[in-house]
# Entry
Amino acid sequence: MFRYILKRLIQMIPLLIFISIISFGISKMAPGDFLTQKALNPSISPETIAAERARLGLDQPVHIQYVRWATNFVQGDMGQSFMYRTSVSSLIVQRLGNTLILGVAAFLFTWLVAIPLGIAMAVRQYSTFDKVSSGITFFLLGIPEFFLALLLLFAAAKTGILPVGGMTSPDFAYMTPVQQALDIGKHLVIPVFAVAVGSIAILQRRMRGNLLDVLGEEYVRTARAKGLPENKVIYKHAVRNAINPLVTILGYEFASLLSGFALVEIIIGWPGMGMMMLEALQGLDMTLAMAGIMMGAFMLLVGNLLADILLALVDPRIKLEA
Amino acid sequence: MASTNTESMTKPMSERPQDELPPMVSSNARIWRRFTKHKMAVAGMWILGVMYALMIFAEFFAPYTEIYEDRNKSYQPPSAIHVMHEGKFIGPFIYNQSEEFDVETLLSKYTEDKTTPYKIKLFHQGPEYKMWGLIPANIHLFGVEGDQARLFLFGSDQAGRDIFSRLLYGSRVSLTVGIMAIAIVIPLGMLIGGIAGYFGGWIDNGLMRIVEALMAFPSFYLLLALFGVTYHWDITPTQRYFVITAILALLGWTSLSRVIRGMVLSIKQQEYVEASRAAGANHLWVIVKHILPQTSSWVIVSVSLMVPSYILGESALSMLGLGVQQPAASWGNMLEEARSLASLSLHPWLLAPGFVIVATVVAFNFFGDGLRDAFDSKKRV
# Structure
């Protein structure tokens, strides 16, 4: 197991180098840089601009710039954000935290709703409840998350029950920690709902399908034949086996925790990584944008690794080979 | 058995006995028959057909042009269509709506001026346009006379442009971007997947490592980065359209090529491939002419299910202001105004493009589902 993880981590290195080269290439496709914008400001002399350009190494050829950036990055120095006037790493840590709050909440919500719903639907197959739920989820699956977010914001603005957008209320700083947690919780409702609805629809279908397959197995018939109460048959025998294949999905959802919600973040105004990326790209703050892509890619790779490990832990038939 | 069958084929339909086997049909006809059994898929196909027809003749169906604006009619609510004026039936017409400032709520409000009706006319001579950018004309399917009242079926936006007309013009971006992207994705994905699967060895290894590396990118971040960078380019709207298409295509071919590779791995074991090689065909010919056509039904289905994701990609990025730029319309950038909650809560009709996007995506999904069932030979009864 340990050797396998080590091998996978080593394999990530060339992949990350490739990704960094591509993203660096993309960042150089932008016309000019933030200094070109500064040069339009008449109060900054051209000499200052030139000096600053030399100091940041922006006058060097591209490959030298890349090596310079990569060396610093490996040493943990992600550079300075020109827009926010602070170090990129501190900015990323803060935004990453916000994104994780949203991601974990959405993740929990999805699983806590989808699994029981799928079980309930499979147990009552072809009942009105099953049909109505299927219809609703199929319909919700067709609504893109960004539009759902807009609709929810609109509803919130009309009813005034929930806060519209952002992560905290204006008087957040004056609240007690408990009130602060509640405040964030209230702001979470709309983004969580917007991102979770689609995943709930998919997950619930799979859970329903898996459980229906398992309920047709012989051992379930045996359990029923020996006189076990139906509840025990379903929850003790069938559900446990039906959930197993879903662990794969769990792992990959984990991987998308970070990058999956960028769009909804932007629309809701949730100050996470997605929001940061958009602002960085609009302001041509390429150091920040680069760091954002690298973090996103890294988390995706780690997430995939975790998914594989989790699968091996749950299913003894799978052996991780080093 | 065989003889009766041939006999029935030669006889005209009406002379055939009722209890006979169905006539032999080509596999295309069989697929079509299976497809038409899927009611929702047929409905999806019709909806898409209507949408594409409206798109092609957008200039004619739209009462106004893409950039026609009436600055006095900013955020006008959808025009209510009346038929009764002062208790008399005079056919469909609208009243002029004018803006008034409400001193109490500090908001402006539109009210209908019920004195003069403005009739809705068919084949109305309205704002000038160039059909397909070529033929100058001014005939619109419908419109309203006079230059006071405006027939805004879905209301107007901030600049006083007709949302309905812009939806029709915007479909020229939103409905074609997916198809155009697919036109790049299919040859690219099939060829790369075909080459990797056919040759195997280090070629396969190298190509698949590249595919995996591209898949390791968090896709939305990559999309955001590419749109964000090209957004700063100083290019014409047409060039931007192609850049957007190229970006969307760039992200799509990887998954296609992976599946094609897997299919080619098994197809290349078949004897006819060997026969073709033995007959002296070169590698590329074998791949393109003999192997890839075998994957076509899978490709058709997966592609029809991929189009919605491109439509959504374009809409999302245009909505963030990084895609199609104003004053050109796309369903995504029309939603940009709806992102401002202050204006959305007062002008809910700004959400109209979103509903059109949902309808299109759902129609494509049903259509694709129907195609999948129709091509799936295992389901044959």
